[in-house]
Amino acid sequence: MALVCLIMAVGTWWPELGLFKLFYQRVLRPAGLLKPDPQPDSPQPHLFAQGVGALFLAAATLSFAAQAVLLGWVLAWIVIVLATVNLVFGFCVGCFVYYQLQRRLGITVTLPMWKRA
Hints:
mainly alpha
């Protein structure tokens, strides 16, 4: 879990190094295992969602280390379920939260390196 957290965090801070994104682009898509359905969109909401997932997995990892096993599994399963919803149904809950923060509260979450993504 800590490894997946690290991969997600690195991909959030440095999008060009996103291991899952590279794996999708270089292995899954060319092999025809996943059918791309590209939609015009900014990368920021997706990077935000990935960062939130990394934070949840970091909290899960710390929970396991603190012997709070149930909390660790709840946090980990939240990430698993939301990633599955995104993959199967094409709905990114983290992106939805990003847009709602912006629309309802005027909060725009961004990092300087996201402009290059």
